[in-house]
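User: Can you help me understand a structure? I only have the sequence.
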Amino acid sequence: MNSVEQVAFTFEMGVVCALLAFTVFLFVSEIVRIDLSAILVLVIVGLLSYAPGLENLADVTKLFDGFASNAVISIIAVMIVGAGLDKTGIMNKVAAVILKYGGTAESRVLPIVSGTVGVISSFMQNVGAAALFLPVVSRISSRSGIPLSRLLMPMGFCAILGGTMTMVGSSPLILLNDLILTANDGLPEGQKIPPFGLFSVTPIGAALILTGIAYFLLLGRWVLPGGIGSDNTGTGHGTQDYLKRVYGLKADVFEVIVPAESPLVGQVLADINHENHLYIISTFYRGKTSMVQVLTAEIAAPCRLAIIGRRWVVEEFAQKFGLTVLPELDIFVEEFAPTNAGIAEVVVTPDSKLIGKCPRELLFRKTYGMSLLAIHRGEETLSHVESDTHESTQIGLEKFNAGDMLVAHTRWDNLMRIKRDPDFVVVTTDFPQDELRPQKVGWALGFFAISLSLILFTDVRLSLCLLTGAAGMMLARVLSVDEAYRAVGWNTVFLLACLIPLGQAVQNTGTAAWIAQQIMVILDGWPIWALQAGVAILATAFSLVMSNVGATVLLVPLAVSIAVAAGGSPAVFALTVAISTSNSFIIPTHQVNALIMGPAGYKVMDFVRSGGVMTILFLVVSLGMLNLIY
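Assistant: Let's start by predicting it. Here is the structure, written out as tokens:
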């Protein structure tokens, strides 16, 4: 260690240290929004660079190069690619599969989501894996009632951890073999470091992912914020709660199985509804689900029915006709997910052609894609379903009047079309108003596959690989250019781009090298395991205030020289640095943490609380596995 050239402390280094302290203070105190804090830091670094003696803080002609950096452009592109896949509805299907196997229990959903993202991020950039699964997790949260804040942080942390599973999972590991080649030039023949293979770090990464999942399963209730960002608003009204609260209809949605020999076979839907004081809202027969079947259709079996009604009424109906009531929705769970469908309120306009006609005459459900549950007229509510204030009515034969408020269950894409119909005024506004384009799924998957292939099998720059997919999706009209702009989380972009000059200042002024040198002086003479732990902690700290690539480039040569001087393994020390630079959980400066912060409503202190424990676990598990394997 004594052979390392000594770095003298300068005035510039003092200014950079003060800037680092100021940045951490802004982040932790959240006096101003975190993205605004990053902009303030950028402005201060730029202005100080004009002061005499501080010219090395930043090259003012390149101050805004962070906005064109590989990391920032990659994030913009991956957000657009993710939005394109989401636009086709494919993320809905992924969410449905996860819910099918995980149910609505946090203890089952969390490991499935986090484990899947962790494995995916071992082969692609972790921010890409997190961005792709962001809409999936949002839908799972909406359907299961699990707060988004309790799912996104475990997913994000496991995306970061997944980057340690292969040598292509993170930028530091990709870079490591190149740095080793340079370091080998100064090593004696017997100590030269062999290059690492693709799966050399897999046991370490797998142990870290399992640790992350176990951590949130066991301690999640204490370290994760609860109830943020998931009140199921923004997706229309929940069927049961809304009907009960507004119209006094104590109804729920049930799924029932109709066997082939049931006496219900051959009966007309409208008659069943009226005679049994319930409403058959959807049918499943011969593999096909229909929410818009005409009410004059007859029951064919074996089939399944989705029924809105009071529990005791539906159970009595099932007993009468030999039906089975399922404990929860199965086949119909996707259709009744709040992100896809819900309760809508529309008003019949004074000049509507519906006036004087009844729903059955208009084939209302088939024509408009709405299952009419109630008509609210003045102080009166007419409905198939009995309530505390009124008896059931055969509203299929009730003629429409001007000003009638129609309460209907519908898919949101149908409601978008109804908004353009002059016969109605749509009162419901808080529903997803982006039309899905399932017919574009082939184009979306094709361009996603092209991006992924370029990342895995070529040396093309990551940002260009992802932009290829994003541009292709816009050209194929999977999503419009305006939709692509709206898909980008600009707060995340500004947060990362504005902090890049500060990281460069830490490196360019020699502040990072000076800090590393002081710590190594303190550790001089310590046992090898303590030196390795010191290197790991140093790499962790550096990755919080500068790019993990910069930290790796700076610390790998230093770690190798420490290992040689202390009689340790240069390979293990080099790998310790490359893995420890992924230990970025305490503040949201990592790209993944910045990405999930907004949607989940996290505060910096949420990361400090959850990430602090994760940081310690990461150090213990990674160091233990490194020494166990190597």
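Now, to help you interpret it: The beta strands are 252-258, 279-285, 288-290, 303-309, 324-325, 341-348, 370-377, 380-383, 405-411, 424-426. Confidence is low (pLDDT under 50) at residues 227-239. Let me know which part you'd like to focus on.
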